Amino acid sequence: MTLKFCQGPKCHTYQTQDRIKGPKGNKTNQTRRRSSFYYGDDNFCSMNCYNDWFKEFGNQAINHFGRITQAKILTEENGWTKRFDYRSYHQGEEDIYYYYNHMTEERRELTKEQYEDRNYTLNTI
């Protein structure tokens, strides 16, 4: 199991029991270290740390990766997203996976493998 550090720039400044490390008489607050985190795509231990990072680096990151300068427009062609309907396994039903068009409200069925494949795209032609 690989442990990683929270990426919050001020994580070590928050006073919690799990951040206090070191031998008695020489305790320090340290950045949290875990195998997984719940926030910011598994990079931050809390929303405080996530927000601290964005306050410090957000504009720089947006400028680096491309600031939006025009409104994006939802059309029939780009309106497709993957969705699923949860079914109860206790009743012997399987989840239903599909592509959904937000403009036309059309549904196109998918297999579970297609739904989980990040590279799978819908052939709309």
Question: What would you say this structure looks like, in words?
Answer:
With 125 residues, the protein is α+β, with helices and mostly antiparallel strands. It folds into two domains: 62 residues, no CATH class; 56 residues. The N and C termini lie far apart (45 Å). The model has no long low-confidence stretch (mean pLDDT 92). Helix content is 19%, strand content 19%.
Q: Give start-end ranges of low-pLDDT stretches.
A: none
Helix share, percent: 10-25%
Number of strands: 7
Computed over alpha carbons, the radius of gyration is: 22 Å
Mean pLDDT value: 92
Number of helices: 2
Strand-helix topology:
Elements: E1 4-5, E2 20-21, E3 28-29, E4 33-34, H1 47-65, E5 80-85, E6 96-101, E7 107-110, H2 112-116
Antiparallel strand pairs: 1-4, 2-3, 5-6, 6-7
Throw out a few tags for this protein.
125 residues, three-stranded antiparallel beta sheet, 2 domains, single chain, 19% helix, alpha+beta
Short recap of the structure:
By secondary structure, this protein is α+β, with helices and mostly antiparallel strands. Helices cover 19% and strands 19% of the residues.
